[in-house]
Each structure stands twice: as structure tokens, then as C-alpha cells.
């Protein structure tokens, strides 16, 4: 190794090649909620993009894919992710939980962090969310739905984090 080699930036491993259709994984353990059944009209009507929910059995949210955190509000109730595939994902924990101002939520990531599928992103106190009168459904939205040929829910019933949830087609 030459003298100047020690100052060179170490190359980061290349992300896994993207294959299509692209699978967005379940980001929580619980019961799948189809888009039209989400208890919030903005999400149920697909106004922000095709989506689905998971009624969580555990207060943990995991990365649904490899990517970068693009939104991390102080209220900790939501995260934006730019997937390595170009799919833009919004994870919104609960309905109207922005009103909780972060109470009962803890983030394990911040804006700009690189994430890997299955990584724990945030935790939430399901009892606090319920006590505040909010549904705790974890909503996963493909916010750039219009950029793709299709976004389709491929899961139903009980899911574990990492299971195929939404299929995005080019």
C-alpha cells in the first residue's frame, strides 16, 4: 500500500442490482389492511399514491427495502424512503398521530441515513397511540405510483416484516 492510498476513501459495497418487478416488503408484524380499508380518506382513496396498511401486533417498523431516508419529521410518526430502485416510499405510522408530537415514538434513523431491508427504523408505543384515540395502522405508500405501470398488493392476512407486500412493475 502506497503512502497516499491510506487517504483514499474506501469504496462502499455496490447495492444489490434492482430486479423488476420490485418488491416492497412488509415493514411491520401484523394484519394486512387493503388500501380502501385504511381508516383515513387521503390514504384509502390513494391520493398520495397506491398503498396498504398493516395493523401492527408489535410496536416496531422495519425498512421495507434498501434505500435512503429522505424525510424524518420531528414528530417521528412518518419516514420517507428513496429506494435504490427509484421507488419512493412513505411510511406513516397511525392515523392523525402527528398530533402526538412524537410522544410514544422513537426513531433509530435520521434524514440522509442509508438503510437496508429489514433494519429497525422506529418504534412506537401502541398503547399510547390507542390511548390518544388513533388507529395505529402502519401505512406504506408508493408516493411516485404514477411513474410505474402498476403497484399491486400481494399480501393478505398476517405478515411478518420482510414478507412481500407491494409489487411495483415498470
How would you sum up this structure, described in words?
By secondary structure, the chain is mainly beta. Helix content is 6%, strand content 36%. It has two helices and 14 strands. It has helices spanning 41-44, 126-131; strands at 22-25, 30-34, 51-56, 60-62, 67-71, 78-83, 88-93, 105-107, 114-115, 120-124, 138-142, 150-153, 158-159, 164-169. The strands form three sheets. An eight-stranded antiparallel β-sheet has the order 9-5-6-7-11-3-2-13, with no helix packed on it. Strands 1-14-12 form a three-stranded antiparallel β-sheet, with no helix packed on it. Strand 5 and strand 6 form a beta hairpin. The model has no long low-confidence stretch (mean pLDDT 93).
Average pLDDT for all residues: 93
Q: How large is the count of helical segments?
A: 2
Shape: globular
Lateral arrangement of strands in the main beta sheet = 9-5-6-7-11-3-2-13
Helix content: under 10%
Oligomer: single chain
Q: What is the strand tally?
A: 14
User: Percent of residues in beta strands?
Assistant: 35-45%
The helix-strand sequence is EEHEEEEEEEEHEEEE
Helix-strand category: mainly beta
Query: How far do the termini sit from each other?
Result: 45 Å
Report the biggest beta sheet as strand number plus sense, adding barrel if it closes. 8 strands, antiparallel
Topology (elements, then pairings):
Elements: E1 22-25, E2 30-34, H1 41-44, E3 51-56, E4 60-62, E5 67-71, E6 78-83, E7 88-93, E8 105-107, E9 114-115, E10 120-124, H2 126-131, E11 138-142, E12 150-153, E13 158-159, E14 164-169
Antiparallel strand pairs: 1-14, 2-3, 2-13, 3-11, 4-10, 5-6, 5-9, 6-7, 7-11, 8-10, 12-14
